[in-house]
Design a protein that fits this description.
Distance between the termini: 26 Å
Number of strands: 9
CATH topology of the domain at 28-134: Glutaredoxin
Strand order of the largest sheet: 5-4-3-8-9
Order of helices and strands: EEEHHEHEHEEEEH
Oligomer: single chain
CATH superfamily of the domain at 28-134: Glutaredoxin
CATH architecture of the domain at 28-134: 3-Layer(aba) Sandwich
Number of helices: 5
Strand content: 15-25%
Helix content: 25-40%
Length: 156
Amino acid sequence: MLSTGDIAVDFELFNTELEKVKLSQFKGKKVVLVFYPGAFTSVCQKELCAFRDSITNFEKLDAVVLGISVDSPFVNKAFKEQNMISFELLSDYGREVSRMYGGVYKDFAGMEGYSASKRSVFVINPEGIITYSWATDNPGEEPDYERVFAEVEKLN
């Protein structure tokens, strides 16, 4: 699992429009990676809507927010549209990026053999270094949104 001080590993995932998005295309910007277990779940909806509601503040700091889950691009698209999310939602259907960054829940929600991204948040500075990392083993726990924003703000 990657953590504070590590170089953010580049990746390429599909967005909701089936376009490939690479982390490296945001080099020179601050990036907030938000891993969430599953679209259309109550805690994930609350979490991503909290980031949605703060997106203007992140943009003022020249920061990009990227949501990542193991859901398909099609599910992420419906979730994005229903919740009017303006930032990219990326599909890690192979679970490789989730494993590298924050890990995965095994047998998620009691479904044997199904895994999902652990709820985690990473702040990456313009040079590609992780300056803040948070992950939880409890899928019902939300990140400290004010702390995430403060960590981005420190990079100014």
